[in-house]
Amino acid sequence: MRELPLSGVGDEAGPELADQIAAHQQLGCANIVLVWDNDTSHRDATMKNLIAYRPWLTVYQLPAYAPVLNPVEGLWSALKRSLANLAPHSVDALAAPAKTRLRLMQYRRDGVLDGFIAETGLAFEPP
């Protein structure tokens, strides 16, 4: 089947789909399952068309807010709580403390990031 070009795909979704195409080729044309959040670039008509022409690609869309299925929801919740009492005057004034807090979470030794995954009940190891 003829592959459709990636031109016209949103900035966020284009590279993600390009990564899946590269993985498909590296895995000897094996089937790939992709689980995406509810970002608009993942749901637009162009992306649906690109996915439809790739029978080896199965895409599951997560609901808009799914903390039980998506570990990153726990991370965003913790980040928002840590920024709750800030009153920045601009987006730039918010970006620096947000990056700092994300970096602190990344290097914590108490396994907080593992906790976000464990909270979902998803397995770390493939079946």
**Any idea what the shape is?**
globular
Distance between the termini: 30 Å
Structural domains: how many:
2
Q: How many strands, which pairing sense, and closed or not: the largest β-sheet?
A: 2 strands, parallel
Strand tally: 2
Low-pLDDT ranges: 1-13
The residue-averaged pLDDT reads 79
Helix coverage percent: 40-55%
Give the SSE order as H and E letters.
HEHHEHHH
Put simply, the count of helices is 6
The radius of gyration computed from the alpha-carbon positions, rounded to a whole number of angstroms, is 18 Å
Strand order of the largest sheet: 1-2
* Strand fraction: 5-15%
**Structural class given helices, strands, pairing?**
mainly alpha
Short description:
50% of the residues lie in helices and 8% in strands. The chain has six helices and two strands; from the N terminus they run αβααβααα.
Topology summary:
Elements (H helix, E strand, L loop, with lengths): L12 H14 L5 E5 L3 H4 L1 H8 L4 E5 L10 H11 L8 H17 L4 H9 L7
Parallel strand pairs: 1-2
Helix pairs in contact: 4-6
Explained architecture:
The structure is a single chain. With 127 residues, this protein is mostly helical. It folds into two domains: 13-61, no CATH class; 72-120, no CATH class. The protein is 50% helix and 8% strand. The protein has six helices and two strands; from the N terminus they run H-E-H-H-E-H-H-H. It has a two-stranded parallel ribbon. Helix 4 packs across helix 6. The longest helix has 17 residues, at 91-107. The radius of gyration is 18 Å and the shape is globular. The relative contact order is 0.12. Residues 1-13 have low confidence and may be disordered.
